[in-house]
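User: Hi! I'm working on a homework problem where we have to compare a predicted structure to a textbook description. Could you give me the structure for the chain below?
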Amino acid sequence: MWGSNARETHPIFFHHVLRAIRNGAKLYVVDPRRTTSAQWADGWLGLDVGSDIALANAVGREILAAGLENRPFIERATSGFEEYRATVQPYTLDYAERVTGVPAALVRELAHAYARAPHAQLCWTLGITEHHNAVDNVRALINLALLCGHVGRYGSGLNPLRGQNNVQGGGDMGAIPNKFPGGQDVEDDASRAKFERAWNVALPSKRGWNLTDIFRAAERGELDTLYIIGENPAQSEADQEHAIGLLRGLRHLIVQDIFLTKTGELAEVVLPATAAWCESEGTVTSSERRVQRCRKALEPPGEARDDIAILGDLARRLGHDWPEYTPQGAWDECRSLSPWHAGMSYARLESLSGIPWPCYDENHPGEQFLHARLWEEPLRGERAPFAAVEHDPPVEALDDEYPVRLTTGRRLDSFNTGVQSGGYSSPLRRGERLDISPEDARRYGVAEGERVRVRSRRGSVVIPVHVDRGLREGLVFTTFHYNDDVATNLLTIDATDPQSGTAEFKACAVCIERLETAAAPA
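Assistant: Happy to help. Predicted structure tokens:
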């Protein structure tokens, strides 16, 4: 598991991991923190924040040096191998130890265990993707799977562990700027023409903006109206003060949500929606691509309405001839346009307890392995490409003024900005805190529970200290679950990946000040 404390952030998944370990599987955890997941691991690779590509490339180089690559698979099913091999040559075990902080012997052990395993999976979470080079981080892991043929087969693959129950489904339905439902590209003329015919409207021929693009457009004055559904960017965006300033500067802000969030408090119109998991009908999709029915269990309170009803009414008031969509009607329209979902009628979803996409017709069981085609003879479709990616450290380097690396994440008892989880108590919840190593606690002369000021180049927060033996010297950790008490994203840097638009939440430079010696807040 790479950059993933699965025991806390994905406890059901980790239950299956533990079962596999008891049955003889090996677990290696790559994470800057010695997490609870690492306690069960055969090896913990506690790398420096932002050195994931250096480590992955070194693992790849060692596999090649030992002759453990799956040469028949590489030659038949991949492209770009020679460029990849040349790129990883400088990433020796000694280089990896210097750059990542992981002992060379442990890097070698991971490389040999992964390459020799009959079945192996690489799992990761936001620890990989919330960086300025997020896409390259993921591609570095894909390289390892291709190098060993650990993809498209039973028990092997690449598994991004989603942070919410329907993140996969949102992307599959086209809630990303470059895709229509079913992964069809908006810049592909044939795909776009199909949707134009179905919807009787001309569609843009270029991909849209991601969230980072939207905020930059607002900053340039190119965007003055924003309609936000189910997001809380006033508290979830990096460099929070800057994000709130842009939201306040909009001409119109409309928010549709189940709670009045901090973003909703800035809006001129708030549309109360239903809690989809219990107050709406529809489907959800897991990270294994399994589409399942979601059934209404409760009537929504007050004036709350289903998202589909709100959107339909709004479209008709704007002069568009939208039908009175039911959840099943919208799903059947999706099935008619998305080959991935064509065979997934409500009846089949119910009788089979869910179906993985792609499912091409009502006789198809759904593909068990997404990339099984890579093992077919002859190869069907395009070859899987290697990517020659290079180590690129965090944007914000440590220095004498800001000598400590802050990384952020989640805890088991809470959820994102705390909007949903903060409204009820939990015996696990201890409030926000700054996890700090024993060495740094001694260095700064602070004790358990003592409040300190954490300052970055963008802002500061006051937060109590928790001494955590799982942290290395120079690294501190906190979350963004308690924004009303500690607005962590006042600290984080709005350095974003140009391909995904994801901000570098996992790496910013801070200093720690005891309150007795800290300057008074402005």
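For your comparison, note the following. The first strand starts at residue 28 and ends at 30. The chain is about 30% helix and 15% strand. Good luck with the assignment!
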